[in-house]
Design goal:
This protein is of the alpha/beta class and 372 residues long. Helices cover 37% and strands 15% of the residues. A hairpin with a 2-residue loop joins strand 6 and strand 7 (164-165).
């Protein structure tokens, strides 16, 4: 079986983790947390990093720290993992959705302006699958309309948009360190900001909003989203190898592109645009109209041949949990609906070997050669 993801832990992970155990510092009070926060913020060119338990929690903190609440609208892509939409809905605000660009699969920036209302408070950018969102026009819209930008850069470690780091564009930007990200802690997340007051708010929100003077008296509700020293130890070691991880992902992407280029009936991910070169968070494939089967069928066939896959994200406006709340009734976003049904990704982890890649591509060729 070739799993859809295998992490690569071949740097200082073991040494740093042993330091935690040997020193007894395993909690969030340990020294690796601050070291990881500083190193990660510096790598993205930000003033403050606030490490937390996971990327979804980082989004909860960012949305709360942005002051988003009942009555507010937040413009975001419908094609995304649920986390950013969940954070907005839990805050009592309303996600206002835009469809995807059919080539990059990222949010179609040209659709944003028509969705702005007097209630719009922020644009929540989610960069997907290895390529950033087209940021310059988006930032221009935000500036002209006085909107905050929150950036979910969970899939963008080490990626740049026109040579500026992803994670540097939002008043608040977030990352995840889930095992399939280019930097992992097992579980983990980070909020980045340049604003001293916002950073303080984020630290308080991460830590149950304990107060400095009267610890157990609370003016506001927060979460326990603290990161442990052990997570930070792994994260710091991973960060030291980020350049190598990016290079490896790009090599994997190039190998898949070369092997799959001539297959008909599939759309491959863009290798580059005029603003970025893909870092292949994962290698996604979308079946074209020429194929009758949908992604679940080909994923089943690949599983029979020992190849792990995952479907694409399911659109926010089609999520049963939101429909049951009366959200997004009668809304339709045809690109997102199509790629959600026709898209899947193949094994793309940092631990993938050249042999794995050729096994995956020959299995894919076999499945796609079968008439459908
Ligand atoms: C992985 C991911 C998240 C969630 O991160 P977790 O650490 O798994 O909570 C959020 N947004 C995007 C775009 C992601 O890819």
């Amino acid at each position: 079986m070739i799993p859809v993801n295998t992490p690569l832990l071949d740097g200082n992970e073991r040494a740093y983790l042993l330091e935690c155990v040997d020193s007894g510092w395993i909690s969030s009070e340990g020294p690796f947390v601050g070291r990881f926060e500083q190193a990660f913020a510096a790598a993205v060119g930000r003033k403050h990093g606030i490490a937390c338990a996971n990327g979804s929690g980082a989004l909860d903190i960012a949305v709360a720290a942005a002051g988003i609440g009942p009555g507010d609208e937040v413009i975001m892509p419908t094609f995304t993992i649920i986390s950013p939409a969940a954070s907005v809905v839990r805050a009592g605000a309303t996600p206002v959705l835009v469809d995807s660009d059919p080539d990059s699969w990222n949010m179609d920036v040209a659709q944003i302006e028509a969705r702005i209302t007097p209630r719009t408070k922020a644009i929540l950018v989610v960069h997907l699958y290895g390529l950033p969102v087209e940021m310059d026009p988006l930032l221009d819209i935000a500036r002209r309309h006085g909107l905050q930008v929150i950036e979910d850069a969970a899939e963008m470690h080490g990626q740049t948009y026109r040579d500026r780091p992803c994670g540097s564009f939002g008043e608040l930007s977030t990352f995840s360190f889930y095992p399939n990200k280019h930097v992992t802690c097992g579980e983990g997340g980070m909020v980045l900001t340049d604003d001293d007051t916002i950073a303080e708010d984020c630290r308080r929100l991460r830590n149950l909003c304990f107060q400095p003077g009267r610890r157990f008296v609370h003016e506001q509700l927060g979460w326990n989203y603290r990161m442990t020293n052990m997570q930070a130890a792994i994260g710091l070691a991973q960060l030291e190898n980020l350049d190598a991880h990016i290079q490896r992902k790009r090599e994997m992407g190039a190998a898949y592109q070369a092997a799959l280029r001539d297959l008909s009936g599939i759309q491959l991910p863009l290798a580059q645009t005029d603003y970025a070169e893909s870092i292949y968070w994962v290698f996604g494939i979308v079946l074209t109209a020429a194929r009758q089967i949908d992604a679940t069928e080909i994923m089943r066939q690949l599983a029979d041949r020992g190849i792990g896959t995952r479907p694409f994200f399911w659109p926010v406006h089609e999520q049963p949990v939101f429909r049951k709340q009366g959200l997004f009734a009668d809304e339709s976003y045809p690109v997102a609906e199509r790629i959600a049904r026709r898209g899947f990704y193949i094994p793309s982890g940092l631990g993938l070997t050249a042999t794995d890649i050729s096994e995956v591509t020959s299995a894919l060729k076999h499945c796609l050669a079968t008439p459908s």
